Amino acid sequence: MLKLITSSSSRIHHHRFPSAAAVTALRPVAESSSPLLRVLNSLGGLGRRNGNSVGRLFFCSGSGSGDGSDQAVDAEVKSTESGAADEAQAKASSAIVSTYPRPEDYLTVLALPLPHRPLFPGFYMPIYVKDPKLLAALQESRERQAPYAGAFLLKDDPGADPSIVSGSETEKSVYDLKGKELFNRLHEVGTLAQISSIHGEQVILIGHRRLRITEMVSEDPLTVKVDHLKDKPYNKDDDLIKATSFEVISTLRDVLKTSSLWRDHVQTYTKHIGDFTYPKLADFGAAISGANKLQCQEVLEELDVYKRLKLTLELVKKEMEISKIQESIAKAIEEKISGEQRRYLLNEQLKAIKKELGLETDDKTALTSKFRERIEPKREKCPPHVLQVIDEELTKLQLLEASSSEFSVTRNYLDWLTALPWGEYSDENFDVTRAQGILDEDHYGLTDVKERILEFIAVGKLRGTSQGKIICLSGPPGVGKTSIGRSIARALNRKFFRFSVGGLADVAEIKGHRRTYIGAMPGKMVQCLKNVGTANPLVLIDEIDKLGRGHAGDPASALLELLDPEQNANFLDHYLDVPIDLSKVLFVCTANVVEMIPNPLLDRMEVVAIAGYITDEKMHIARDYLEKSTREACGIKPEQVEVTDAALLALIENYCREAGVRNLQKHIEKIYRKIALQLVRKGETKATVASVQSVEAKRVEEDNVESHPDPNQKESSMVADSRSDEDKEIETTTIEKVLVDKSNIADYVGKPVFHAERIYDQTPIGVVMGLAWTAMGGSTLYIETTLVEEGDGKGALNLTGQLGDVMKESAQIAHTIARRILLEKEPENHFFANSKLHLHVPAGATPKDGPSAGCTMTTSLLSLAMKKPVKKDLAMTGEVTLTGKILPIGGVKEKTIAARRSEVKTIVFPSANRRDFDELAPNVKEGLDVHFVDDFMQIFDLAFDDDNSQHSEKSVSL
């Protein structure tokens, strides 16, 4: 890299040519009698000063620190040259710099390593010397009036990373090298350098002539023997040398067209090219270029003038290309900036003209007008307190600066306030028959939900208006809770909005943020009203039983105000900070487990339970809804596929036993996807045959046209007719109906997932079938009891099957009741007193809990003790107390469905659950012999007496 040191420490980057001010910073060191010095004088445009001629030296940078130390270097250069002016004037005709002894007399010199660039004759370079011994030796040489040393470029470290070798070695690492290691790292050819000045660790070197190292004299500091090199003789009138030198000049002139930084200096230099010597021209071009150190070293080592000029020409050509690239980049950026400035100026002028003509107003006026136009149609229906807030905010907006943060806050606040549907309601549907049709069209079953919605419509029709309600639909996944909400909105002709609160832990999602926060937003209800555009939408709050709770508050408590019919008429959002009337909103919530909903929130809702679907209901849903929609989604025509009822029944019983139909829909989609793939593969085969036949027919037609021009129409028509007949035949054969039956259902959905829940056709001694409820619906489970040890077992009872605490307590109660009843029925039987028993509930990997298996466990224990099996096809459920009373249980419908699925004929329910059973649909109760009991003795008589009808007072046969 090249630099210039000036008296004002100015520095010219891009490293092309030195400025005149920088050159004049050096003291006169030679009379300007040589041709090169005369040209250098003309470069700076300077004459004589105080009767002395001014010599100029170019500067090669080695390791400039960039910290202002150039001023000190400049001062040293001036002071060290003042005592040698007379001697320099006498020898100026043969040297570029002043000399003390003759430079060629120095055959042994100190070796200075140059890490970045070589030093060329006629240029000077600052370097930093970190080695104290070397620095002392240089100072001593200067004091002995022998201020010369050898400057040699340092070779790259062969063991270093190639990506960081070139030009990246610091001077500190350079002077860590000593002796032979340093000697081996130096290039052989260097420059004899005059030590111009020493300032601290900085040494200024002035290049004189080329040197070649011959041998090492001493290691510390490194001293070497050198040979002085001279250029090979050349003919000044040689055409190749002239042409090459003029090409260098021409290239430099091209550089001045693209680089204004060096324009004046290059112009002055090229005007005096006749006064230059060709070797110095080559050195000059290489020294001012930005080439890497190895390329510059190659120029320095070349003693053939013509070859040196060629190398220099390559370097300056590269510099010219770089200058062109810089110019193009600068031009592109300048055009972009000027274009943007021009567009900005024109836009500002256009705004000013429109404003003068009244065609456009400023931003604040436009915003105010927009907000007023938005609220004007709602002004009569809008509450007075809201209008007052809007007017105050509009006045405030006019007084604020558009650049202030408060302006954007106020603008956003007004945007939300004016966008809400104040007093705007959608026309509701009070036609019960139409609503019934819409609900039946979208969903099969769900009688309780549909009945409740029809009641809501009937009340609204009688009153002439409707009020908001909060309904909670509870049931297992996949029964249609969320989808029925959309159907209800369509039946009522209300806008629909859904948001899920599952995992919600931030109160701000419900109540909004304060406006003082950055990025504040209203809550979900305000966003809902803005989106739907009416004040009486149907809002579906999904997964309300899965509300979270975190550091940001309790969302369940925030919903209390929202879902309270007495409070939501004045719902207050934190962002709007004005009351909002939500009394007309119909809220429909969904939950899987009602017990997970906080009691204060549950108390505000009307819970409608949606039980699972029985097999018949699933068949209707699959045939009338799921299959049709899936077939249309897959692009399959009805005549292309047939799924039999037996296949659907097998799919429901062996793959999709859950209470809902979501998994059933997935399996039907899987079937139709495989059918679509079969149809496409068959169609591609037939299409390939048709394509080949079409090509052959076309080829025959073309041959007929060429050979028989006159009758070709007849022949081509015959070919076309035959081809169309073949196409029709292929088309008719491609339509093949795919039949999916019970026999091949496994080919589409894989092996069955479920098997028969019924383990025993005839329950053995000690085994009784019970009924259980799960979140996925109802299921049957067996209670198994066996004898472990008889005689001295002391009446112990082991329990297994991953039972919960409540179920373990039920087992202990059942053990106690069984012992009491056995003493009553068979006093001589001491089975429980002396035996160790083991009670197990199968499906041990599934956690089980609850009190409803109490009567089943008691019956199982008595069956083992009395060595009697229970009645065939009997299932029971109910909680038993220590006195033998049977308490009510939940999940009557789910348990009934599970019993039907297991082909159970007789069911035992607590008497308190008769009302729940009576509400079931007739198709659910069909074919069941149901007994309702109050005491366990009724179950005992029913389970162990063949003639059990006379003992059961509350028996229902359907």
What features would you describe in this structure?
This protein is of the alpha/beta class and 958 residues long. The chain has six domains: 20-228, LON domain-like (Archaeosine Trna-guanine Transglycosylase, Chain: A, domain 4); 239-322, no CATH class; 363-419; 432-609, P-loop containing nucleotide triphosphate hydrolases (Rossmann fold, 3-Layer(aba) Sandwich), CATH 3.40.50; 623-749, Helicase, Ruva Protein, domain 3 (Orthogonal Bundle), CATH 1.10.8; 767-957, 2-Layer Sandwich (Ribosomal Protein S5, domain 2). The protein is built from 35 helices and 26 strands. The strands form six sheets. The protein has an eight-stranded mixed β-sheet with strand order 19-20-18-17-21-24-25-26. The chain has a five-stranded mixed β-barrel with strand order 2-4-5-6-7, surrounded by four helices. Helix 17 packs antiparallel against helix 18, helix 24 packs across helix 25 and helix 24 runs parallel beside helix 26 (662-707). Mean pLDDT is 78; it is low at 1-99, 165-172, 687-700, 705-720, 726-734 and 947-958.
